[in-house]
Structure formats: structure tokens, C-alpha cells
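Database export, one record per block. Field names are fixed; values are copied verbatim from the stored entry.
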Amino acid sequence: MKMRAVIWTMCLIAMGIVTIWKISANHSRIDGDILSLIGQESSSNTSSEQLSDINIVRDLLAQDANQAIIMLSHSERDALENTSQELAQKLRAIDGTQNVSLPGFETGDAQPLYALYQKHAYGLLSQKDRDALIKGDGKRLFQRALQNLYSPSSLISAQSLKSDPFSLLPDFLSDLGAKIGQSGLVMDGEQFATPIILTLPKDVRSNGQDANWVSQVNDTITTTLTANTGLHIAKTGQIFFAVSEASHARDDVQRIAIIATTGVVIMVIAVFMSALPLVATLLTVGSGLLAGITALVVVFDSIHAIALVFGASLIGISIDYALHYLVLPSSTGTASARLAQIRPGLRLGLLTTACGFAALAVTPTILLAQISLYSIAGLIAAYATVVLILPVLPCRDVRNQSPVRVLYERINHALLKVRIGPAQRLSILAAAILGLVAMAVYLPANDDIAALGHGDAALINDARIIGQTLGMGGNLQFIRIDGDNVQDRLETAEAVRTALEPFLRDGVVGSLFGLADVIPSINRQRENRDLVASELVDPYGAKLQAALPFKISTDDTPSDFLEPDQGLLASIPGLANLQQGETDIMRINAVQNPDAIRNAIADIHSARLINPRETITAQFGQYRNWAVLALAASLIAAGILAIIRYGILGGLSVLAAPLIAILLAVIGAYAVGVTVNFFAVMALFLVFAIGADYAIFTAESQHHGQQDETRFAVFLSLISSILAFGLLATSSVPVVNAIGTIISIGLTCAWVLSYWMGSAHVPDRNTDNR
């Protein structure tokens, strides 16, 4: 036995070495970004040319995650300009800032396009110039060209005049800059407002610099506000929200972890009056956590933090295994004899739980597959530690006069008085099954991602102000345009802009920007050239010709028409991801009435509005449905195993405890305001896994005559689980609070039901306990 303990200890050490190496060498990355959860299915039915909505949403949000916006407003323009430039300089100096731009006072991203556009100027018109020519007001544009020609401050050159004699391109670029979001000085009532746009490295969040960066930005903003009377600053960006949520979650987790750990330590020491059982439980739990992490880093290149959180929750299951061995008195016999008594129950509990988590592995989501692998590997390791290492450790008996034992005796005496007959148990089980089916069909679910986090009121208000003032930042949506011909897609985008122009003027939409704004369709370019020829060159060309040393021409050649260049689009941050395969994207910000937008473009072929929040919510709805199916499969598998072990009546009685506990957990959580979502269903998995162990261990105790010790071990397990999970119900983060509430209600019900539904009802059979 000692040799097996040594071998298993060496295996655990090897796991630790592998895990540390994989993580420290960046072979496996811990990812805490919610964006990495979406669009990461194990398989996809979409082609490489036409991505799904969720994948496009993920790419767009990932791009926006590397950008932050700080809006300054002041009643004096000069003061605003000076302060903006000073603040921008300070922000550039912060470690983690890649680029800083001031669109209101500096040249934006449209300027690099000038060289590309020069020889195509006749086909590129700002909307204002195009409208003027359509109305026959070419004279104004001609007069503007003369003013630019003789203006001493003009930046036009001989080369630009040759390709653009009427100086049309500067207005097109100015218009483009505004659409990109790089023309940022606006007048809002009596206040001038301008943005500072910050670009961050792609790894600023994954390498742990995000909190420090946000802290320095906040300190810089505070200092700037203190030194400038009358200045107002608002900020927005995913990094601010992410750090705020992480801060709330971290504070809650630290508080809960300290209380839970202290409580478990006090409980174990108070029960045994010795530190050895505490060492045994920590070894069991620690080996499970280590094996789970090792399995993930070996199989996956990137591991999501949520998978680690749910995987780590198996502490509530693995500690059961240790406690059931530790509570057996030394008078029972040798370590091998004590282990032989509980091994069948441990094996069945492990098999039942593993089947439950294995059902998650067949779902099409990477997240659920990671949770499944972590849990199964961890539970197997915890079981191995109990059967290989714990028998080697010295035995310490329970102190019968400990406060925990005395409390247990009173509760145990009261619960044992209740007896439910076989017919009643089957009736309750049938009603519970019907209740679960009805609940799955009729109980309203809410997978809205906005309801998952704590929500920072100040940041939400800042995002609203920036969106309303600048048409930038929050409430990003996009219009998706599909088609195998790029020119068809560009023409569709132009039709969309025409349909939405009234909404832009009225402020229902803050901004709209797509590929067609950068490179108009060939038909639009041809129309523009015809307008220039008929409304400018024909009536005013000769007059302008007299002031120019070259001939003005509008003859069309294939090279005169500009077509999309993916390399160019990718080189400018504001233009990235506008074209993905056979899909073009139009970004639309600060949308006040999405339904009105949908109605406005309803008749435009292949164009539809996509709301990322709705898309991600629908994705989590799919995750929830898969998790419900996996939970149902787990219950069926557990029922089959229980029937094989205990017979039909006994098996159904054992299954009844966790099944009814799940129903009561949902009803109880719903009564206190917890909504059903993906994370709630995952919490039910833990109710099933731990509750099934309660019922199985209680049923198994009737075979080896240690019913009281087993019930006491289950009681201790309940206390540790409530400490580990129940305290989550006090969290300020809604999703964590929901998980804690559901598990607390569910496990308490499962513990009580293990007395009434399974105890003393399993037939006593001769069982091989080897």
C-alpha cells in the first residue's frame, strides 16, 4: 500500500511540473475575456467564406476591446484644445498605451488614404458635394476651387491639382474622417466636446496589465480634472468595464474564500481535534484541482477562467470522498478494512458524477468541454488519493463531544423520525419528473449578458453621454450585407446609407460607417464622374483651365475606378474587419431605436441589422439548452446505474434525492428573484453531482453497517459545501450570486431528501466490497 502511495505522489508531482511548465512557457493561456466564450464551437456549419453572426460579433468586439475613448468637454474651445493635448501626452506615457489620437485637433486615419485616392478624385464625392451637383449647384464648388487655388494657406500641390483640379478630394476625406469617427470636435449646447482615442496592444488584458493601466488612466484623469475648472471628462471602453467587473468579483471571491477556508479548517479540527484529517482533506482536494488543471493545459492551448471556476467547484465533491473515509472509527479495523467498506460507494459516486460531466463533453461548445474534462480528471484524482494515500496516514477518530457532532445528533434525530413509504416515494418522484419537464418548457429564462455582471453605473452613464454627444462608443450594432459579388455588396451598402440618412440627421443613429464609405461602388463612382463632367467640367472647366498649366480631362479608363484593397483596409485600424469573406460590415453606433432601423432596411436585399448583445444572448441561450440536455442525460445515466446497483425501487429512491433537489433549487431560486440562464443550469450540475453522492453514500452505508458515520460525513460535506458555495449567494455580482443561491438551496434539499427518499429503503444484499 505504501508503494502505491509513493507512486501516486510521484504522479501528482509530475502533474505539477507539467502544469507549471505549460503555463509559465505560455503554452497554455488562461483567458478571462467573456468574448472568448462566444463563437468558439467545437464544430461549425458555416463556410469559411460566410461567417456566422456570432463569429463576426466576436471579431468586432475583440477589435473594440483594444480601444478606449475619453471625451473632454469645456465651454472654451482653446482651453479644451490645450487640455486635450496635455492629457493625451500624459496618456501616451502610460505603459500599455500603444497609440493616442485627438481627432478634434489632429489629422485622423483618413489622411493615409490621400495618396490612394488622388487619381480617382472625380469618382469620390462627399455627400454634400454630390447633393450640390445633383441640384445643379456646381458654381459653388467652382468658386471654392478658385479660392483654394489662390489661398496662401492652401496645401494643394501641382500633383494634386492635376488629378483633382476642382479640389473635391479634401471634402471627401473630411466626410470620410467624420464617418470613421476621426473628426471629433463637436458643439454640445454651450460646451465644446472632443474625444481622445486610445489604442491598446492586443495582449494588454491577457498579460495582466489591464488593471494597472486603468488605475493609471483614472489617476491621470483625476489630476487633470482637479487642475482644470469647468472641465468634464467621460470615458468608455471594454477595458474599463472588464476591470470594474473583475474588481467586484475579486473582492467577493477573496472575502468568501477567506471565510470558507477558515470555516472548513475550524470544522475539521473541531470534529477530530487533530490537524492530520485536515491534511488528508487538503491532499484530496488539492490533488483533484491539480489533475483537473493538468488535463486542461495538456489538451487545450487556451483555458477559460469560467472553466477553472466551475472545475474548482469540485472541491465540494472531492471533499466528500475524504470525509467518508476519515469519519470511520479506528475500531472498524485496519485502514484496508475501513477503505473496503466505503470503496463501492465511492466508485459508484465517481461513476455517476463522471457520467454527468461526460454528457457536457458531447456539447458543441469548447467551454463545456473544458468544464467536463477538468471535473472528470479532478474527481478521478481525488478518488485515487483517498484509496492510495489516505490509508497510509495515521487514523484520528471523531470527537463525539465536539459542537459539530452534538449539532448533528439533534438534527439527525429529528430527520430520522420522518418515514415515507415506497408508494409515496414513487409518487413524489413521478411528480418531480413532471415538474422538471414543465419547468424546462415553461419557466422563463434570461440569458441577457447585461444581467450577468455587477454593472458600474458611472461607466454606463459615461458610455451613454459619449454615444449621444459624439456618436461613438456604447451600444455598438452593425448591419451585415452578404453576397458573392463585392460590387453588389457595395451598392447595397450605399442603399442602406440612403435609407438611414434621416435617422442620422435626427440623432436616432449616432454614426454609420462601412466599406462603401471608403470605396464607393463602381456604379457610384461612374455616377459621380458623370456629375463632375456635366456640372463642373462642362460649364466651368474652361474658366478653371485658364488658371492651370494642364488640360482637365474626365475620360473614363478602367484604372480610374477604385476597387477594395484588403491590404489597405487591414492597415488602418478604423477600417479593419469591414470585409470578411463574402460579408461586408457597416458599423452603426448609438442606436436609439433598433426596430426603426430594421424597418427602414427591410426591403433592401441581403442587409440586416445585427445587435451583438442580442446575438451573444442567443448564443448563451444555446449553451443553456445544451446544458439542460446534458443534465437530463446525466440524470438518466445516474438512474440506470442506481437501478443496476440497488434494484428498481431502491435505484429510483436514490435518484429521487438529487432530482427533487434540482426542482426545488430552481423553484426556490426563482422565488427569490434568480433567473434561469446558462450559469444557473451549470449550478444545477453541481447540485446533481453532490446530491447524488449524498444519496449514494447514505444508501451504501446500509451494506457495511456504518449508517451513522456516513450520515455524519454527509453532514460535514454539506457544511463544507455551503461554506464553499453558499457564501457565493452574498456576492454583488449577479451571476455569482445566482450560482451560490441555487447550490445552497439545492444541496440543503438533497441532504434532507437523502434521509427520506433513500435511507433505510435499499435492500440489504451481499456485495463484493473488494
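Remark 1: The longest strand covers residues 191-199.
Remark 2: The mean pLDDT is 82.
End of record.
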